[in-house]
Write a structure and sequence with these properties.
- There is one protein chain.
- By secondary structure, the chain is of the alpha+beta class.
- It has one domain (73-297).
- 28% of the residues lie in helices and 28% in strands.
- The protein has five helices and 15 strands.
- The strands form five sheets. Strands 3-4-7-8-9 form a five-stranded antiparallel beta sheet.
- Keywords: Membrane, Transmembrane, Transmembrane helix.
């Protein structure tokens, strides 16, 4: 039996009374709150990314400086070193005893202590290097049997891991196009990128051994007195890859120049690719190994 028409109309009217939707104002408020939430989330994400990039840049600069100084230290601390002759009065094939006299090898063919230990140029030209370090190359007795080398081989390497040639190990450092490069006997190869400055100063002993005094000098002031160099100060300025939103006038302290002047550099006024990038200055002093040899050769 069909329901009466009146009953059907009453039921539909009740259903319409219970159905509710969003008004235009409510819909706009909801959209606004959603957009605000997205904007806050995006701002937090960008801030987090900026902090992460800055921390990553700082860590990268620390790693690069550590590597550069490790390479420099390995060569500078060996500068001028010569072979220890554990049996000064014996031939290479003779047996060595613990009571044998120890002496430095003072006669090394092809190795000039005054020229092959350390040299420098304050403003290197196209075919020049800012810092040159050398030391005696020699072979050692090994426990690996080989008829070709009579169990003797050189274990010394230059800044590029090369064995070197003749009677010396040579490492030559220079900064070109924001890249610190090193060369042995051949062409230079990059070892560290993003280098804004590379400065070298030399510590000379200017008084006798009884009352020793050291003085900082640049290569021009050393003026050929390389035999009196006891230590070398190396300064590097490295810069990062990330562009930082920094306030105007943000600066860093540069390396001492060849004349010893220390400048303050505005990072917001630099040209690309260094503008608004993190800059860090690293300095270290390396003592040469062969002060006695240097003094006797002066």
């Amino acid at each position: 039996m069909r329901a009466p028409l009146y009953a059907t109309m009453t039921t539909n009217r009740c259903h319409r009374q219970h159905q509710k939707g969003l008004s235009l104002v409510e819909l706009m408020v909801g959209i606004a709150i959603g957009l605000l939430t997205v904007a806050v989330a995006m701002g937090a994400l960008m801030a987090s990314r900026s902090v992460t990039a800055t921390v990553s840049d700082s860590s990268l600069l620390q790693q690069q400086s550590a590597y550069a100084f490790r390479v420099l230290a390995q060569q500078l601390r060996q500068a001028g070193s010569m072979r220890l002759n554990l049996a000064a009065q014996k031939t290479d094939g003779a047996a060595i005893e613990i009571t044998d006299l120890v002496a430095f090898e003072t006669q090394a063919p092809g190795f000039n202590p005054n020229l092959d230990i350390i040299q420098g140029v304050d403003a290197p030209g196209t075919n020049q290097f800012q810092l040159t370090v050398g030391y005696r190359n020699y072979t050692e007795q090994l426990h690996i049997a080989s008829a070709a080398n009579n169990n003797r081989e050189s274990l010394l390497r230059n800044c590029l891991g090369e064995q070197g040639s003749n009677d010396r190990i040579l490492s030559r450092f220079v900064l070109r196009n924001n890249t610190l490069s090193c060369a042995g006997e051949g062409n230079a190869q990059p070892i560290v990128d993003n280098v804004a400055n590379f400065q070298v100063r030399y510590l000379l002993q200017t008084t006798p051994h009884g009352n020793p005094q050291m003085q900082y000098m640049n290569a021009a002031t050393v003026n050929g007195r390389w035999a009196q160099v006891f230590a070398v100060e190396v300064c590097l300025v490295l810069y990062g890859n990330e562009v930082i939103d920094m306030p105007a006038g943000s600066s860093y302290t540069d390396c001492p120049s060849a004349d010893g002047v220390i400048a303050t550099v505005d990072m917001t006024a630099l040209e690309q690719p260094r503008n608004r990038r993190m800059h860090k200055t690293f300095r270290s002093v390396f003592q040469l190994r062969s002060q006695g040899l240097l003094q006797t050769s002066s």
